[in-house]
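Hey all, quick one. A colleague (J.T.) asked me to put the magnesium ion job into the tracker so the inputs and the C-alpha coordinates live in one place instead of scattered across chat threads. No bug as far as I know, just bookkeeping. Sequence used:
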Amino acid sequence: MSDLSDANVAGWNLEATYAELPSPFFSAVLPTPVARPEVVILNEDLGRELGLDWRAISRDEAASIFSGNKLPVGAKPIAQAYAGHQFGGFTMLGDGRAILIGEQRSPSGKLYDIQLKGSGPTKYSRRGDGRAAVGPMLREYIISEAMHFLGIPTTRSLAVVSTGEPVYRDEALPGAVLTRVASSHIRVGTFQYFAAIRDDLGLRTLADYTINRHYPDLMESQDRYIDLLKTVIDRQASLISQWMRVGFVHGVMNTDNVAISGESIDFGPCAFLDRYHPNTVFSSIDHGGRYAFGNQPSICHWNLVRFAETLLPLIHEQESEAIRIATEILEGYPELYESHWIEQMGRKLGLDDADSSDKPLMDELLQWMADELLDYTTIFSQLTRGFDGAIEPFAQARFVRWYEAWQARLKRSGRSDALVKETMKNANPYVIPRNHRVEEALDAATYRNDLEPLHRLLQAIRNPYEATEHNADYATPPAPTQQVYQTFCGT
Ligand code: AMP
Ligand code: MG
Protein backbone atom coordinates (compact mmCIF):
# COMPACT_ATOMS: atom_id res chain seq x y z
CA MET A 1 0.00 0.00 0.00
CA SER A 2 2.73 2.46 0.97
CA ASP A 3 4.51 1.60 -2.29
CA LEU A 4 1.45 2.53 -4.25
CA SER A 5 1.10 5.94 -2.67
CA ASP A 6 4.81 6.57 -3.27
CA ALA A 7 4.31 5.76 -6.88
CA ASN A 8 1.34 7.99 -7.28
CA VAL A 9 3.19 10.89 -5.79
CA ALA A 10 6.24 10.35 -7.97
CA GLY A 11 4.22 9.80 -11.11
CA TRP A 12 5.38 6.30 -11.94
CA ASN A 13 2.90 4.65 -14.21
CA LEU A 14 4.65 1.48 -15.23
CA GLU A 15 3.32 -1.26 -17.44
CA ALA A 16 5.08 -4.46 -18.36
CA THR A 17 3.79 -5.49 -21.77
CA TYR A 18 7.07 -7.08 -22.84
CA ALA A 19 7.33 -9.08 -19.64
CA GLU A 20 3.94 -10.59 -20.51
CA LEU A 21 5.33 -12.15 -23.69
CA PRO A 22 6.35 -15.85 -23.67
CA SER A 23 9.53 -16.96 -21.91
CA PRO A 24 12.07 -17.00 -24.77
CA PHE A 25 11.67 -13.23 -25.06
CA PHE A 26 13.44 -12.37 -21.83
CA SER A 27 14.77 -13.53 -18.52
CA ALA A 28 13.58 -12.02 -15.26
CA VAL A 29 16.43 -10.50 -13.27
CA LEU A 30 16.95 -7.95 -10.53
CA PRO A 31 19.48 -5.14 -10.76
CA THR A 32 22.51 -5.84 -8.58
CA PRO A 33 22.63 -3.21 -5.82
CA VAL A 34 25.53 -0.76 -5.88
CA ALA A 35 27.56 0.58 -2.94
CA ARG A 36 27.05 4.33 -2.92
CA PRO A 37 24.73 5.62 -5.62
CA GLU A 38 25.01 9.32 -6.35
CA VAL A 39 23.23 11.33 -9.01
CA VAL A 40 25.60 12.62 -11.67
CA ILE A 41 22.89 14.10 -13.83
CA LEU A 42 19.11 14.00 -14.06
CA ASN A 43 17.11 14.95 -17.12
CA GLU A 44 14.27 16.77 -15.43
CA ASP A 45 12.66 17.92 -18.69
CA LEU A 46 12.46 14.38 -19.98
CA GLY A 47 11.19 13.19 -16.60
CA ARG A 48 8.37 15.69 -16.76
CA GLU A 49 7.47 14.53 -20.30
CA LEU A 50 7.24 11.04 -18.85
CA GLY A 51 4.99 12.26 -16.06
CA LEU A 52 7.50 12.07 -13.20
CA ASP A 53 7.10 14.55 -10.40
CA TRP A 54 10.58 15.60 -9.32
CA ARG A 55 9.32 17.43 -6.24
CA ALA A 56 8.31 14.03 -4.92
CA ILE A 57 11.64 12.40 -5.75
CA SER A 58 14.53 13.55 -3.58
CA ARG A 59 18.05 13.34 -4.95
CA ASP A 60 18.74 10.35 -2.72
CA GLU A 61 15.58 8.67 -3.90
CA ALA A 62 16.58 9.37 -7.52
CA ALA A 63 20.04 7.91 -6.86
CA SER A 64 18.44 4.76 -5.41
CA ILE A 65 15.97 4.30 -8.22
CA PHE A 66 18.25 5.12 -11.14
CA SER A 67 21.01 2.88 -9.85
CA GLY A 68 18.65 -0.06 -9.49
CA ASN A 69 18.98 -0.14 -5.69
CA LYS A 70 15.28 0.52 -5.31
CA LEU A 71 12.61 -0.34 -7.84
CA PRO A 72 9.70 1.95 -8.61
CA VAL A 73 6.30 0.42 -8.02
CA GLY A 74 5.02 -1.61 -10.93
CA ALA A 75 8.53 -2.52 -12.05
CA LYS A 76 8.98 -5.99 -13.53
CA PRO A 77 12.67 -6.09 -14.31
CA ILE A 78 13.81 -8.25 -17.22
CA ALA A 79 16.76 -8.66 -19.53
CA GLN A 80 15.69 -8.96 -23.17
CA ALA A 81 16.89 -11.73 -25.45
CA TYR A 82 18.34 -10.84 -28.83
CA ALA A 83 21.01 -11.82 -31.29
CA GLY A 84 22.94 -9.86 -33.86
CA HIS A 85 25.57 -9.58 -36.53
CA GLN A 86 28.55 -7.88 -34.94
CA PHE A 87 30.98 -6.63 -37.60
CA GLY A 88 29.39 -9.19 -39.90
CA GLY A 89 29.56 -12.23 -37.59
CA PHE A 90 26.41 -13.68 -36.07
CA THR A 91 26.19 -14.03 -32.26
CA MET A 92 23.52 -14.78 -29.69
CA LEU A 93 23.48 -11.76 -27.36
CA GLY A 94 20.79 -10.29 -25.13
CA ASP A 95 20.92 -7.55 -22.50
CA GLY A 96 24.23 -8.39 -20.89
CA ARG A 97 24.36 -5.27 -18.78
CA ALA A 98 20.97 -3.70 -19.21
CA ILE A 99 17.69 -4.32 -17.43
CA LEU A 100 14.30 -3.15 -18.61
CA ILE A 101 12.51 -2.17 -15.43
CA GLY A 102 9.21 -1.43 -17.09
CA GLU A 103 7.37 0.71 -19.59
CA GLN A 104 6.21 4.11 -18.47
CA ARG A 105 2.83 5.29 -19.78
CA SER A 106 3.39 9.03 -20.23
CA PRO A 107 0.67 11.62 -19.63
CA SER A 108 0.30 11.87 -23.43
CA GLY A 109 -0.45 8.14 -23.53
CA LYS A 110 2.79 6.98 -25.14
CA LEU A 111 4.63 3.97 -23.81
CA TYR A 112 8.38 4.27 -23.11
CA ASP A 113 10.85 1.61 -22.10
CA ILE A 114 12.74 2.56 -18.94
CA GLN A 115 16.01 0.69 -19.06
CA LEU A 116 18.94 0.69 -16.67
CA LYS A 117 22.29 0.21 -18.41
CA GLY A 118 25.22 -0.98 -16.30
CA SER A 119 22.94 -2.44 -13.65
CA GLY A 120 24.68 -5.78 -13.15
CA PRO A 121 24.96 -9.18 -14.78
CA THR A 122 22.13 -11.07 -16.44
CA LYS A 123 21.72 -14.44 -18.07
CA TYR A 124 23.12 -12.85 -21.25
CA SER A 125 26.27 -11.33 -19.79
CA ARG A 126 28.63 -13.96 -21.26
CA ARG A 127 32.01 -12.95 -19.85
CA GLY A 128 31.06 -9.33 -19.14
CA ASP A 129 30.63 -7.82 -15.69
CA GLY A 130 27.26 -6.25 -16.43
CA ARG A 131 28.65 -2.87 -15.48
CA ALA A 132 29.47 0.40 -17.18
CA ALA A 133 31.93 3.22 -16.60
CA VAL A 134 30.81 6.78 -16.07
CA GLY A 135 32.53 8.13 -19.21
CA PRO A 136 30.70 5.99 -21.79
CA MET A 137 27.37 6.47 -19.99
CA LEU A 138 27.81 10.24 -20.05
CA ARG A 139 28.80 10.02 -23.70
CA GLU A 140 25.51 8.26 -24.43
CA TYR A 141 23.69 10.90 -22.38
CA ILE A 142 25.30 13.76 -24.31
CA ILE A 143 24.95 12.29 -27.77
CA SER A 144 21.38 11.10 -27.34
CA GLU A 145 20.34 14.50 -26.02
CA ALA A 146 22.15 16.20 -28.90
CA MET A 147 20.30 13.96 -31.36
CA HIS A 148 17.03 14.81 -29.72
CA PHE A 149 17.62 18.55 -29.97
CA LEU A 150 18.78 18.15 -33.56
CA GLY A 151 15.31 16.71 -34.24
CA ILE A 152 16.56 13.24 -35.13
CA PRO A 153 14.72 10.16 -33.81
CA THR A 154 16.63 8.77 -30.86
CA THR A 155 16.47 7.01 -27.55
CA ARG A 156 17.01 9.45 -24.69
CA SER A 157 18.72 9.57 -21.33
CA LEU A 158 16.92 10.19 -18.08
CA ALA A 159 19.75 9.88 -15.58
CA VAL A 160 23.31 8.90 -14.91
CA VAL A 161 24.08 7.72 -11.38
CA SER A 162 27.58 6.87 -10.18
CA THR A 163 27.80 3.63 -8.24
CA GLY A 164 30.68 4.29 -5.85
CA GLU A 165 32.26 1.11 -7.23
CA PRO A 166 35.11 0.80 -9.70
CA VAL A 167 34.78 -1.00 -13.00
CA TYR A 168 37.88 -2.57 -14.45
CA ARG A 169 38.66 -1.86 -18.09
CA ASP A 170 42.16 -0.92 -19.25
CA GLU A 171 42.23 0.95 -15.96
CA ALA A 172 39.95 1.15 -12.94
CA LEU A 173 37.18 3.64 -13.71
CA PRO A 174 34.27 4.99 -11.70
CA GLY A 175 31.18 2.87 -12.35
CA ALA A 176 27.80 4.31 -13.37
CA VAL A 177 24.30 3.36 -14.42
CA LEU A 178 22.50 5.12 -17.27
CA THR A 179 18.72 5.22 -17.44
CA ARG A 180 17.73 5.01 -21.06
CA VAL A 181 14.30 5.86 -22.41
CA ALA A 182 13.21 4.33 -25.72
CA SER A 183 10.05 3.82 -27.72
CA SER A 184 11.12 0.21 -27.33
CA HIS A 185 14.31 -1.80 -27.39
CA ILE A 186 13.15 -4.16 -30.14
CA ARG A 187 16.04 -4.55 -32.55
CA VAL A 188 16.71 -6.25 -35.86
CA GLY A 189 18.66 -8.58 -33.56
CA THR A 190 15.50 -9.42 -31.63
CA PHE A 191 13.98 -10.79 -34.83
CA GLN A 192 17.24 -12.59 -35.58
CA TYR A 193 17.05 -14.28 -32.21
CA PHE A 194 13.74 -15.96 -33.07
CA ALA A 195 14.93 -16.83 -36.57
CA ALA A 196 18.05 -18.41 -35.06
CA ILE A 197 16.14 -20.59 -32.61
CA ARG A 198 13.64 -21.40 -35.40
CA ASP A 199 10.71 -20.34 -33.29
CA ASP A 200 8.17 -19.29 -35.92
CA LEU A 201 5.46 -18.77 -33.35
CA GLY A 202 7.71 -16.51 -31.28
CA LEU A 203 8.63 -14.64 -34.45
CA ARG A 204 4.98 -14.02 -35.27
CA THR A 205 4.31 -12.94 -31.68
CA LEU A 206 7.23 -10.50 -31.88
CA ALA A 207 6.09 -9.11 -35.24
CA ASP A 208 2.55 -8.63 -33.95
CA TYR A 209 3.78 -7.01 -30.74
CA THR A 210 6.02 -4.69 -32.78
CA ILE A 211 3.22 -3.71 -35.13
CA ASN A 212 0.85 -3.14 -32.25
CA ARG A 213 3.35 -1.01 -30.37
CA HIS A 214 5.01 0.96 -33.15
CA TYR A 215 2.95 0.77 -36.30
CA PRO A 216 -0.67 0.21 -35.21
CA ASP A 217 -1.93 1.48 -38.57
CA LEU A 218 -0.63 -1.75 -40.10
CA MET A 219 -2.82 -3.95 -37.90
CA GLU A 220 -5.64 -3.88 -40.42
CA SER A 221 -3.40 -4.57 -43.37
CA GLN A 222 -3.83 -7.82 -45.32
CA ASP A 223 -0.05 -8.00 -45.73
CA ARG A 224 1.01 -6.61 -42.42
CA TYR A 225 4.38 -8.35 -42.25
CA ILE A 226 5.31 -7.16 -45.73
CA ASP A 227 4.19 -3.69 -44.71
CA LEU A 228 6.25 -3.95 -41.52
CA LEU A 229 9.31 -4.69 -43.65
CA LYS A 230 8.58 -1.75 -45.95
CA THR A 231 7.97 0.60 -43.03
CA VAL A 232 11.12 -0.39 -41.17
CA ILE A 233 13.15 0.03 -44.37
CA ASP A 234 11.73 3.50 -44.84
CA ARG A 235 12.34 4.52 -41.21
CA GLN A 236 15.93 3.34 -41.33
CA ALA A 237 16.61 5.02 -44.69
CA SER A 238 15.20 8.23 -43.28
CA LEU A 239 17.20 7.93 -40.05
CA ILE A 240 20.52 7.34 -41.79
CA SER A 241 19.89 10.23 -44.19
CA GLN A 242 19.50 12.46 -41.12
CA TRP A 243 22.72 11.17 -39.59
CA MET A 244 24.41 12.06 -42.87
CA ARG A 245 22.88 15.52 -42.78
CA VAL A 246 24.51 16.35 -39.44
CA GLY A 247 27.71 14.35 -39.96
CA PHE A 248 27.07 11.64 -37.39
CA VAL A 249 29.12 8.45 -37.36
CA HIS A 250 27.41 5.80 -35.26
CA GLY A 251 30.46 3.57 -35.20
CA VAL A 252 28.79 0.22 -34.37
CA MET A 253 25.94 -0.37 -36.79
CA ASN A 254 25.64 -4.01 -35.79
CA THR A 255 22.18 -5.47 -36.31
CA ASP A 256 21.63 -5.57 -32.54
CA ASN A 257 22.06 -1.80 -32.56
CA VAL A 258 19.30 -1.18 -35.10
CA ALA A 259 16.01 -0.28 -33.45
CA ILE A 260 12.83 -1.31 -35.23
CA SER A 261 11.23 1.94 -34.05
CA GLY A 262 13.63 3.90 -36.26
CA GLU A 263 15.32 5.60 -33.30
CA SER A 264 19.09 6.02 -33.07
CA ILE A 265 20.25 3.65 -30.36
CA ASP A 266 23.35 2.31 -28.58
CA PHE A 267 25.77 5.18 -28.71
CA GLY A 268 29.15 3.58 -28.23
CA PRO A 269 32.25 4.97 -29.90
CA CYS A 270 30.11 7.35 -31.95
CA ALA A 271 31.13 10.86 -32.96
CA PHE A 272 30.28 13.77 -35.20
CA LEU A 273 32.56 14.69 -38.09
CA ASP A 274 34.74 17.69 -37.81
CA ARG A 275 36.56 17.59 -41.14
CA TYR A 276 34.52 16.03 -43.88
CA HIS A 277 35.65 12.81 -45.41
CA PRO A 278 33.46 9.81 -46.22
CA ASN A 279 36.18 7.41 -45.00
CA THR A 280 36.09 8.84 -41.50
CA VAL A 281 36.15 6.22 -38.76
CA PHE A 282 36.42 7.07 -35.07
CA SER A 283 35.87 3.72 -33.38
CA SER A 284 39.07 2.10 -32.17
CA ILE A 285 37.60 -1.34 -32.90
CA ASP A 286 36.42 -0.65 -36.47
CA HIS A 287 39.67 -1.73 -38.12
CA GLY A 288 38.25 -2.36 -41.58
CA GLY A 289 36.26 0.86 -41.68
CA ARG A 290 33.06 -1.17 -42.02
CA TYR A 291 31.10 1.58 -40.27
CA ALA A 292 32.88 4.57 -41.81
CA PHE A 293 30.75 7.69 -42.30
CA GLY A 294 30.20 7.12 -46.02
CA ASN A 295 29.43 3.41 -45.58
CA GLN A 296 26.47 3.96 -43.30
CA PRO A 297 23.80 3.95 -46.04
CA SER A 298 25.01 0.67 -47.53
CA ILE A 299 25.53 -0.94 -44.12
CA CYS A 300 21.97 0.03 -43.33
CA HIS A 301 20.91 -1.82 -46.47
CA TRP A 302 22.91 -4.87 -45.37
CA ASN A 303 21.24 -4.76 -41.95
CA LEU A 304 17.81 -4.51 -43.54
CA VAL A 305 18.53 -7.59 -45.64
CA ARG A 306 19.23 -9.42 -42.36
CA PHE A 307 15.89 -8.13 -41.05
CA ALA A 308 14.04 -9.27 -44.17
CA GLU A 309 15.58 -12.74 -43.89
CA THR A 310 14.04 -13.17 -40.45
CA LEU A 311 10.59 -12.25 -41.76
CA LEU A 312 10.53 -14.80 -44.61
CA PRO A 313 8.33 -17.36 -42.79
CA LEU A 314 5.78 -14.61 -42.16
CA ILE A 315 5.89 -13.14 -45.65
CA HIS A 316 4.80 -16.26 -47.53
CA GLU A 317 4.41 -19.92 -46.65
CA GLN A 318 6.46 -20.84 -49.69
CA GLU A 319 10.04 -19.82 -49.10
CA SER A 320 10.85 -19.12 -52.75
CA GLU A 321 7.88 -16.80 -53.02
CA ALA A 322 8.78 -15.09 -49.75
CA ILE A 323 12.32 -14.53 -51.03
CA ARG A 324 11.02 -13.11 -54.31
CA ILE A 325 8.78 -10.62 -52.47
CA ALA A 326 11.45 -9.56 -49.97
CA THR A 327 14.10 -9.22 -52.66
CA GLU A 328 11.93 -6.96 -54.72
CA ILE A 329 11.29 -4.70 -51.74
CA LEU A 330 14.97 -4.61 -50.75
CA GLU A 331 15.98 -3.75 -54.29
CA GLY A 332 14.09 -0.51 -53.82
CA TYR A 333 16.33 0.55 -50.93
CA PRO A 334 19.08 2.41 -52.83
CA GLU A 335 16.57 4.60 -54.61
CA LEU A 336 14.53 5.11 -51.45
CA TYR A 337 17.62 6.05 -49.46
CA GLU A 338 18.77 8.40 -52.18
CA SER A 339 15.44 10.21 -52.19
CA HIS A 340 15.70 10.72 -48.40
CA TRP A 341 19.30 11.87 -48.71
CA ILE A 342 18.51 14.28 -51.51
CA GLU A 343 15.73 15.74 -49.44
CA GLN A 344 18.07 16.23 -46.46
CA MET A 345 20.92 17.63 -48.56
CA GLY A 346 18.45 19.77 -50.48
CA ARG A 347 17.38 21.36 -47.20
CA LYS A 348 21.02 22.02 -46.37
CA LEU A 349 21.20 23.98 -49.61
CA GLY A 350 17.92 25.82 -49.09
CA LEU A 351 15.80 23.74 -51.44
CA ASP A 352 12.50 22.08 -50.65
CA ASP A 353 12.07 20.46 -54.04
CA ALA A 354 15.46 18.88 -54.62
CA ASP A 355 15.48 15.83 -56.86
CA SER A 356 18.02 13.52 -58.44
CA SER A 357 19.00 16.18 -60.96
CA ASP A 358 20.45 18.12 -58.00
CA LYS A 359 22.73 15.30 -56.96
CA PRO A 360 25.75 16.53 -58.96
CA LEU A 361 25.51 19.89 -57.19
CA MET A 362 25.53 18.14 -53.81
CA ASP A 363 28.27 15.71 -54.77
CA GLU A 364 30.52 18.47 -56.08
CA LEU A 365 30.33 20.43 -52.86
CA LEU A 366 31.04 17.34 -50.78
CA GLN A 367 33.92 16.29 -53.04
CA TRP A 368 35.47 19.73 -52.62
CA MET A 369 35.08 19.49 -48.86
CA ALA A 370 36.62 16.01 -48.85
CA ASP A 371 39.56 17.06 -51.03
CA GLU A 372 40.23 20.05 -48.79
CA LEU A 373 39.31 18.27 -45.52
CA LEU A 374 37.03 21.14 -44.56
CA ASP A 375 34.96 21.28 -41.43
CA TYR A 376 31.54 19.87 -42.35
CA THR A 377 29.47 21.80 -39.83
CA THR A 378 31.33 25.08 -40.31
CA ILE A 379 31.07 25.13 -44.10
CA PHE A 380 27.32 24.55 -44.10
CA SER A 381 26.87 26.90 -41.19
CA GLN A 382 28.75 29.63 -43.05
CA LEU A 383 26.80 29.02 -46.24
CA THR A 384 23.73 29.55 -44.05
CA ARG A 385 24.83 32.36 -41.82
CA GLY A 386 27.18 34.21 -44.15
CA PHE A 387 30.84 34.00 -45.05
CA ASP A 388 33.51 36.23 -46.41
CA GLY A 389 34.20 35.21 -50.01
CA ALA A 390 37.59 36.88 -49.88
CA ILE A 391 39.03 34.39 -47.42
CA GLU A 392 40.12 30.82 -47.88
CA PRO A 393 38.57 28.43 -48.72
CA PHE A 394 35.71 30.41 -50.20
CA ALA A 395 38.04 32.29 -52.54
CA GLN A 396 39.03 29.09 -54.35
CA ALA A 397 38.01 29.09 -58.00
CA ARG A 398 36.55 25.62 -57.59
CA PHE A 399 34.22 26.84 -54.84
CA VAL A 400 33.31 30.04 -56.69
CA ARG A 401 32.18 28.01 -59.72
CA TRP A 402 30.12 25.75 -57.47
CA TYR A 403 28.65 28.73 -55.67
CA GLU A 404 27.46 30.30 -58.92
CA ALA A 405 25.80 27.05 -59.97
CA TRP A 406 24.11 26.83 -56.57
CA GLN A 407 22.87 30.42 -56.76
CA ALA A 408 21.49 29.78 -60.24
CA ARG A 409 19.67 26.71 -58.91
CA LEU A 410 18.20 28.72 -56.05
CA LYS A 411 17.00 31.33 -58.52
CA ARG A 412 15.29 28.64 -60.60
CA SER A 413 13.55 27.36 -57.48
CA GLY A 414 11.78 30.72 -57.23
CA ARG A 415 12.14 30.69 -53.43
CA SER A 416 12.65 33.97 -51.61
CA ASP A 417 15.98 34.62 -49.88
CA ALA A 418 14.19 34.57 -46.54
CA LEU A 419 12.68 31.16 -47.23
CA VAL A 420 15.99 29.74 -48.43
CA LYS A 421 17.69 31.02 -45.30
CA GLU A 422 15.01 29.60 -43.05
CA THR A 423 15.23 26.18 -44.68
CA MET A 424 19.02 26.17 -44.38
CA LYS A 425 18.96 27.36 -40.82
CA ASN A 426 16.79 24.44 -39.77
CA ALA A 427 18.98 21.92 -41.56
CA ASN A 428 22.49 23.10 -40.80
CA PRO A 429 23.44 23.00 -37.13
CA TYR A 430 25.52 25.81 -35.75
CA VAL A 431 26.63 23.57 -32.91
CA ILE A 432 27.20 19.83 -32.70
CA PRO A 433 28.73 18.00 -29.74
CA ARG A 434 32.23 18.08 -31.12
CA ASN A 435 34.54 15.30 -30.03
CA HIS A 436 37.07 17.42 -28.27
CA ARG A 437 34.28 19.02 -26.26
CA VAL A 438 32.72 15.66 -25.45
CA GLU A 439 36.09 14.26 -24.38
CA GLU A 440 36.77 17.36 -22.33
CA ALA A 441 33.46 16.91 -20.48
CA LEU A 442 33.98 13.17 -19.96
CA ASP A 443 37.54 13.60 -18.73
CA ALA A 444 36.56 16.28 -16.24
CA ALA A 445 33.71 14.14 -14.92
CA THR A 446 35.71 10.90 -14.79
CA TYR A 447 39.05 12.05 -13.43
CA ARG A 448 38.29 15.29 -11.59
CA ASN A 449 34.70 14.86 -10.52
CA ASP A 450 34.09 18.18 -12.28
CA LEU A 451 30.67 18.35 -13.94
CA GLU A 452 30.94 21.93 -15.08
CA PRO A 453 32.12 21.19 -18.67
CA LEU A 454 29.34 18.57 -19.00
CA HIS A 455 26.64 21.03 -17.99
CA ARG A 456 28.01 23.73 -20.28
CA LEU A 457 28.12 21.32 -23.22
CA LEU A 458 24.58 20.12 -22.54
CA GLN A 459 23.44 23.72 -22.43
CA ALA A 460 25.19 24.45 -25.74
CA ILE A 461 23.53 21.59 -27.64
CA ARG A 462 19.99 22.47 -26.57
CA ASN A 463 19.65 24.96 -29.40
CA PRO A 464 21.82 23.50 -32.14
CA TYR A 465 20.36 25.52 -34.98
CA GLU A 466 20.71 28.92 -33.31
CA ALA A 467 23.72 30.96 -32.33
CA THR A 468 23.10 31.80 -28.68
CA GLU A 469 25.09 33.22 -25.80
CA HIS A 470 25.61 29.66 -24.55
CA ASN A 471 27.01 28.06 -27.64
CA ALA A 472 29.24 30.42 -29.64
CA ASP A 473 32.22 28.88 -27.95
CA TYR A 474 31.10 25.42 -29.04
CA ALA A 475 30.80 26.19 -32.74
CA THR A 476 34.55 26.36 -33.24
CA PRO A 477 36.25 23.33 -34.77
CA PRO A 478 39.09 21.76 -32.82
CA ALA A 479 42.55 23.22 -33.13
CA PRO A 480 45.00 20.69 -34.63
CA THR A 481 46.13 19.71 -31.13
CA GLN A 482 42.54 19.20 -29.99
CA GLN A 483 41.53 16.94 -32.87
CA VAL A 484 40.13 13.61 -31.68
CA TYR A 485 40.85 10.77 -34.07
CA GLN A 486 39.68 7.81 -32.07
CA THR A 487 36.86 6.97 -29.72
CA PHE A 488 36.63 3.92 -27.53
CA CYS A 489 33.71 1.69 -26.70
CA GLY A 490 34.93 1.52 -23.14
CA THR A 491 32.25 -1.05 -22.30
P1 AMP B 1 27.07 -3.10 -27.38
O1 AMP B 1 28.43 -3.13 -27.99
O2 AMP B 1 26.92 -2.13 -26.24
O3 AMP B 1 25.98 -2.97 -28.39
O4 AMP B 1 26.89 -4.52 -26.69
C1 AMP B 1 26.94 -5.73 -27.38
C2 AMP B 1 26.59 -6.87 -26.48
O5 AMP B 1 27.55 -7.02 -25.43
C3 AMP B 1 25.25 -6.74 -25.78
O6 AMP B 1 24.70 -8.02 -25.65
C4 AMP B 1 25.64 -6.19 -24.43
O7 AMP B 1 24.66 -6.46 -23.46
C5 AMP B 1 26.92 -6.93 -24.17
N1 AMP B 1 27.80 -6.21 -23.24
C6 AMP B 1 28.52 -5.09 -23.46
N2 AMP B 1 29.20 -4.71 -22.38
C7 AMP B 1 28.95 -5.64 -21.41
C8 AMP B 1 29.36 -5.82 -20.05
N3 AMP B 1 30.21 -4.97 -19.46
N4 AMP B 1 28.87 -6.88 -19.39
C9 AMP B 1 28.03 -7.74 -19.97
N5 AMP B 1 27.62 -7.63 -21.24
C10 AMP B 1 28.05 -6.59 -21.97
MG1 MG C 1 24.14 -2.94 -28.46
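Adding what we noticed when we looked at it: The radius of gyration is 23 Å. The chain has two domains: 3-185, 187-428.
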